[in-house]
Write a structure and sequence with these properties.
Uridine Diphospho-n-acetylenolpyruvylglucosamine Reductase, domain 2; Uridine Diphospho-n-acetylenolpyruvylglucosamine Reductase, domain 3; Enolase-like, domain 1; 3 domains; 5-stranded antiparallel β-sheet; 11 helices; binds flavin-adenine dinucleotide; binds iron/sulfur cluster
Amino acid sequence: MLRMPEFRVHRARSAQEAVELWHGLGGAEGRGKDAVWSAMYLAGGTDLLPNIKHRLFTPKHLISLELPQPQIVDEGDFLRIDAGVKLQALADHPLIQATLPPLASAAGKVAGPQIRRMGTIGGNVLLDTRCLFYNQTESWRQALGYCLKKEGTWCHVVGGPKTCVAAQSSDCVPVLLALNARLRLTGPSGERELSLRELYRYNGFDHLTLTPGELLTAVRVPKPAPGFRGLYHKLRTRGSIDFPELSVAVTGAWEGDAPSSLEIVIGAINPQPKPVKGLDEWLGRPLTDEGIEAITTLVHKATRPQGSIIGDPDWRRAMAGVFTRRALLELRAASA
Ligand SMILES: Cc1cc2nc3c(=O)[nH]c(=O)nc-3n(C[C@H](O)[C@H](O)[C@H](O)COP(=O)(O)OP(=O)(O)OC[C@H]3O[C@@H](n4cnc5c(N)ncnc54)[C@H](O)[C@@H]3O)c2cc1C
Ligand code: SF4
């Protein structure tokens, strides 16, 4: 049995109280692989608590985010999803299902029902990166001499002392990136907004650009244009529980069989989800079968999965193309 280490839980009833507690309780020293956490935020705990059991983090204090009534609100040009909204509530929400169906679909594909009822959208966006050599017990990792992301000096995936390619493995993030979502953050000097596209970087042991102690309070998603459609495809071994081994989000606005905008984002390949560039060429004209094949090839070329999570990287790469083709055929058929 894996035992929890000791920590104290503090309840925060507002964003400001949470931030003040974090700083008052010693926050963190250093960042990334060198960070020593005195205090950490706890939302649903479905990522953080297993990681604490594995001694990947050993904070003395957890700040339980118990902000009143997280909501999904129509703000005119944006839909605001409070960070504390549970994933099952997101998947089931009529406004999300009607306005942002691929987001409802992605949220509904996270893990299994129990975890979706505990896990929040905030925790999903800020999920730690994952790796076969990292998400293991302390004794397992010790037997291997640890690894660069935690306590060691060597990456067992790339075989070197500098780069960590642990994978950003959230299901909602590729869709939110395709939708150009924004984040509302609270820190000691007040509130700010950040484009989700600026949140992640290609560094598995320090993949978030947030200032330490910043609290995510909401995700704001621009309302899509008329004719919007989107799909989320997820590759996993067991449909009932598993993290993605690869994922593809395809969104866009369509006029008949012609897309007027198109976004494709690949997830679960490395520390930074990948928006595919170069899609403008297919906008404003009917998307032919040849066009779909050309985009499939483009996505295949742009997808470079690392071996940090399960699934053969070549197979995962091939599936990025397969999912793209399937999604475009389905979206075109639904729009024509
Ligand atoms: C068996 C299993 C299967 C899983 N499968 C999937 C899957 O298929 N897809 C998937 O995407 N995820 C999966 N997860 C991971 C996790 O359940 C989800 O990503 C969930 O959304 C995490 O949210 P949480 O509220 O539980 O986050 P927590 O565990 O509470 O927090 C996660 C991290 O975010 C930080 N944090 C949380 N909220 C905030 C905030 N508002 N501001 C600042 N920092 C914050 C925490 O400090 C922590 O570092 C799985 C987990 C398990 C145990
Ligand atoms: S990618 Fe390398 S450094 Fe990063 S967690 Fe995995 S083994 Fe460790």
